[in-house]
Design brief:
Elements lengths: L1 E5 L4 H12 L4 E5 L12 H11 L10 E4 L2 H14 L5 E2 L5 H7 L4 E6 L1 H4 L2 H10 L4 E3 L6 H6 L5 H13 L4 E5 L7 H8 L4 E3 L2 H12 L7
Parallel strand pairs: 1-2, 1-3, 3-4, 5-6, 5-7, 7-8
Helix pairs in contact: 1-10, 2-3
The structure holds D-glutamic acid.
The site of D-glutamic acid has 17 residues, from helix 3.
Length: 219
Amino acid sequence: MKLGVFDSGIGGEAVAIALRETFPDAQIDTVNDREHIPYGDKTPSQVREFTEIAIRPFLDDSYDVIILACNTATAIAIDYLRRTYPNQKFIGIEPMIKTAATLTKTGTIAVCATPRTLASNRYKKLVSTYGAHLDIIEPDCSNWAYLIENNQLNRLEIEATISQLCTRGADVIVLGCTHYHWIKSLISELADGRAVVIEPSEAIGRRVVQLLEPSSKVV
Ligand code: DGL
């Protein structure tokens, strides 16, 4: 099995690590687009164009699945890519609103994502389908991807954000940007038992199996 994993930056590496654990025998290649990071503050047409150019090395028909390990690229570009390359299988990553809705007891969740993801129609549809009954806090995380990419993470700023979310009653924190996977344990530590932190790495592995072996039972 050959998988291509794309993100604007190091978020893709976080997803690739999880996939390599799930599929130790697979060839898992990554590409990124550090020249244009962060995608979160780019226009939709820029995100679409940059994504298509960046994944070109994967568009030679040799990849079983291309994984957009980037919520922002998925939100903006996956429909276009599926239309443009109908013979290529794609998997995207989206904020886990549906899972959060099943987990929350307070009815308040937080979604940490880039401004472009939060403004997208795909995200709005997710919210109206699965989270219309929830109070959804969308904190300003606009500089997080840049800070994480450049190893300049400001722990105090993250701490202030997470503590505000918990004070407002959020008991599920959705990581809606793959860069934040790198600080999942820090966020969990700062939430200190008040909220669970979720991201879709494991679900992606299950989706790969489902897509490549449609008859298999996915649990
Ligand atoms: N890692 C990307 C995501 O999942 C975004 C980072 C960026 O803004 O480039 O949304």
